[in-house]
Amino acid sequence: xxxxxxxxxxxxxxxxxxxxxxxxxxxxxxxxxxxxxxxxxxxxxxxxxxxxxxxxxxxxxxxxxxxxxxxxxxxxxxxxxxxxxxxxxxxxxxxxxxxxxxxxxxxxxxxxxxxxxxxxxxxxxxxxxxxxxxxxxxxxxxxxxxxxxxxxxxxxxxxxxxxxxxxxxxxxxxxxxxxxxxxxxxxxxxxxxxxxxxxxxxxxxxxxxxxxxxxxxxxxxxxxxxxxxxxxxxxxxxxxxxxxxxxxxxxxxxxxxxxxxxxxxxxxxxxxxxxxxxxxxxxxxxxxxxxxxx
Length: 294
Fold this sequence. Notes:
Elements: E1 2-3, E2 8-17, E3 34-36, E4 40-48, E5 51-64, E6 68-72, E7 76-81, E8 86-91, E9 95-100, E10 107-109, E11 112-114, H1 123-126, H2 148-176, H3 178-202, H4 206-224, H5 234-243, H6 248-266, H7 273-291
Parallel strand pairs: 1-9
Antiparallel strand pairs: 2-5, 3-5, 4-5, 6-9, 7-8, 10-11
Helix pairs in contact: 2-3, 3-4, 3-7, 4-6, 4-7, 5-6, 6-7
């Protein structure tokens, strides 16, 4: 049990194998009467052989303001287990906190609340009353705020500042958040693979062409979902797409082109150049459609 206006520390520790910087942000639902400060985050990374062992500590400072019995709901986080080939969810237990009355003395006066004597002020001294007599008012001529340049000069610097801040924030996330960087670069990486496939198509190297298209299709999904493309099988890809709520029809269409690329890659026989060119265009459209859901 704690008293109202007394600081409380809540620490969460996530540990395991892998890159903790790619973990999603935790969503903790605190009671509305709690004053919560931004968490202190500490990442611990340990390279042991071929494994990357890491942990992330998040420490919240909480100040309950009103006495009562409170519950902090469980905090959950989901992750994909390559060994089980499915998503798993971990959750904390519920936390119960009993808040008693504060020892601080509160002063009430005329429907106003003051937390300390220093906040009590005489309104007659710190606010002047409106002067009603003896005013000399004169009409003015042209008003600057009626011109478009006035609003442009007022708004453009703000827009520039917002844009510069957004770009800086984007670049910082690109350099520190692996998941964010992979998702943003996914389409560019896949497009580069398709361009490489197109070069094989021009040289009538159809096996290499279909192989590069297949790697582009799988790599796009891997980057968008922050998974390793190496060893990612057809069933794994299908499971990832379903988990991200991709429409069933689009999943079937994507898998059809993925299967055809693998079949054409290894199947003997003649392949028409015009069929390969049509397949190339269709693969581009599949990536555009998937990008709307991933």
